[in-house]
Amino acid sequence: MPPEKKNDSPVALEQRELSADQRMFSPSVARNSAPILAVLKRVLPTRGAVLEIGCGTGEHAVYIAGAMPHLTWQPSDPDADARTSTTSWIKFAGLKNVLAPRDIDVCSGQWGLEQPGHFDAIVSINMIHIAPWAASLGLFAGAGRSLHAGGLLLLYGPFKRDGAHTAPSNAAFDAALMERNPSWGVRDIADLEHVGGAAGLILRETIEMPANNMLLVFSSGSA
């Protein structure tokens, strides 16, 4: 069914299409889903449970889980419209390995998860730069509780290295983010490493991605 109308989410940086069944369509997901999946196929386990933080439209959830059917994918988002869209995408795709989206706010000290150390991996795509620094702190703290030893935290988006942007376009993007909300912004890898260390997470790999993005791979406990 083709998109019918526009949807402007308060945390979205793009105009999204909305179908009659409440599925949102993100232009950025259409661009980056294939490169992200290629990396996830390499770094994620072949089986296990994955928690997605900030699932947005839900398109990444069904795209990745559809290509990796032996994973159980748990999407989550604090935004009700995002969860509605994700639920509709799950129904549309007919996937049995994608669970109903959870309402998780990473800034909350409690994520409402039943079992600490349950997840093999946590994935967050294009989230921490459109959220306050407290969201990064909460994400790492929650990942430290929710991952089992050797579990992975995967972060995708633009990042700074040692205080410097990796491309002029990222510097302009960072300025636009902070103009929109002073608490937002492109995060520095060194700062994330420091926060990760406090939560027992170590940066294992930094993967260059298209359009001046990166995918950071942190691991919990012993490698």
UniProtKB/TrEMBL annotation:
UniProt superkingdom: Bacteria
Gene3D superfamilies in the cross-refs: Vaccinia Virus protein VP39 (3.40.50.150)
Pfam families membership: DUF938 (PF06080)
InterPro entries for the chain: DUF938, SAM-dependent_MTases_sf
PANTHER family: UPF0585 PROTEIN CG18661
Name of the molecule in the record: DUF938 domain-containing protein
